[in-house]
Write a sequence for this structure.
């Protein structure tokens, strides 16, 4: 069995989701560590190509990953002192626009954050089946507030536990 290392691209999201699924939270991550150490023969990947190689060599036959983020919220803004704030604002407005959000999400396997683009995605039967596009269902999804997590502590606990 293969899971993302906490330092991998999806490692923090996977670890937070595993902690939540096991009854822990952003402070108490022991339930996640207990589960991970209970898996016999567990292996970890830091880069996607490691997972591909381990599949090809037969070293693993299953990947466990609870942190797939198709709707990722964050911040985008204009940095103070920007020489051309109008150009930056135009870029941000284009990035958030319905058409761009729809096309970007479509080719990247994501859910657009623009609600109109989400509604447009829901018209596609494949996306409608594969993705959660209903705002009421999205509101029930786990949202990780990393500002409430001590990431250094998570990584320290991970290395102390996994190294045993």
């Amino acid at each position: 069995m293969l899971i993302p290392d906490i330092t991998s691209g999806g490692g923090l999201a996977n670890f937070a989701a595993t902690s939540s699924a096991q009854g822990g939270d952003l402070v108490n991550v022991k339930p996640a560590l207990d589960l991970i150490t209970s898996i016999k023969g567990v292996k970890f990947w830091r880069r996607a190509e490691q997972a591909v190689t381990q599949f090809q060599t037969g070293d693993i036959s299953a990947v466990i990953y609870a942190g797939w983020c198709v709707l990722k919220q964050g911040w985008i803004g204009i940095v103070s002192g920007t020489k051309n704030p109008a150009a930056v604002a135009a870029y941000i407005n284009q990035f958030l626009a319905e058409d761009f959000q729809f096309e970007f999400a479509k080719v990247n396997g994501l859910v657009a954050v623009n609600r109109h683009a989400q509604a447009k995605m829901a018209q596609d039967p494949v996306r409608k089946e594969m993705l959660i596009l209903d705002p009421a269902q999205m509101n029930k999804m786990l949202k990780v507030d990393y500002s409430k997590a001590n990431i250094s502590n998570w990584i320290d606990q991970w290395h102390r536990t996994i190294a045993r």
